[in-house]
Specification:
Blueprint: E1 2-5, E2 8-15, E3 21-25, H1 36-42, E4 47-52, H2 68-81, E5 88-92, H3 94-105, E6 112-116, H4 126-138, H5 142-153, H6 161-169, H7 173-189, H8 191-197, E7 202-206, H9 214-220, E8 224-228, H10 236-239, H11 241-255
Parallel strand pairs: 3-4, 3-5, 5-6, 6-7, 7-8
Antiparallel strand pairs: 1-2, 2-4
């Protein structure tokens, strides 16, 4: 399905029924296929919206600045239009950053957050690596840099790598560069404030590579619950749904207040 927000067509899937509601948000270079296993699973429990960010998938890809804050506004608007209220927001990679931004700016909107290997409060070592990625994405060898980023993010055993590479390569260079450029400023200027402002339950599921300072995160957000997937690189919603889905189930059953 598609719907226009300020002239920009946003693509999404919606399925299921019931009081428990979900919003799934893919990361940079992804599309709604990255949460296909979760849509199939959780739409049996309630109403689930699988969003496709502007610039990605089948959504429009205008020449503009892309930011965590802008994506978050699109998501809240889309949910309001589709009568998705008090959802558990599940975000992979920067989708988790958007979930935190939403929880800070719209504190009554989410019922809980699930962050899948999101780069929140980056460890110091990430700066140099990410600066190198950004330089490569800006250059003439854009496709080769995309393949390198995906390869670096995956384990050698990850079966989803070829699919993820396709979705990244389908994302225009101007979208990847602009969005990537916004990530570190958000982490420096907003991540701490958003973590501290968040009042709903939060689950962070880590993959093989550490992309968040979880000790700092816990100090700022004491309700944070952490977990680790086994044998998966960055794209764990695709790679190990048999681990991720039950973890989300357990988190909801223990910590998230159900409607009614």
């Amino acid at each position: 399905m598609k719907i226009a927000h300020d002239g920009i067509q946003l693509s999404f899937d919606i399925a299921g029924a019931g009081p428990l509601q979900f919003l799934f948000v893919h990361g940079l270079g992804g599309d709604r296929t990255h949460f296909a296993p979760q849509m199939e699973y959780f739409a049996r429990q309630g109403r689930a919206l699988n969003a496709e960010l502007r610039g990605h998938g089948e959504s429009d890809k205008p020449q503009q600045a892309y930011s965590i804050e802008g994506f978050a506004d699109d998501l809240v608007w889309l949910c309001n239009r589709q009568q998705i209220t008090k959802p558990v927001i599940v975000g992979q990679s920067m989708g988790g950053n958007m979930a935190l931004e939403i929880a800070a700016r719209y504190p009554d909107f989410p019922a809980g957050l699930v962050l899948l290997d999101s780069g929140v409060l980056f460890p110091a070592s990430a700066g140099t690596v990410f600066a190198g990625y950004l330089e490569g994405l800006r250059g003439a060898d854009f496709a080769d840099e995309v393949r390198k980023i995906v390869a670096d993010s995956c384990l050698p055993t990850d079966r989803c790598r070829a699919h993820v590479e396709q979705t990244f390569l389908a994302t225009p260079q101007h979208v990847l560069v602009s969005t990537f450029t916004s990530l570190f400023p958000w982490d420096v200027h907003r991540a701490r404030e958003c973590a501290q402002a968040c009042r709903v339950p939060v689950l962070y599921i880590e993959a093989a590579h550490r992309l968040a300072d979880l000790d700092r995160f816990t100090a700022l957000c004491p309700q944070l619950v952490t977990a680790k997937a086994v044998g998966s690189g960055y794209f764990l919603s695709l790679e190990v749904p048999e681990q991720i889905n039950p973890m989300i189930d357990r988190f909801i059953s223990l910590y998230v207040r159900r409607p009614g």
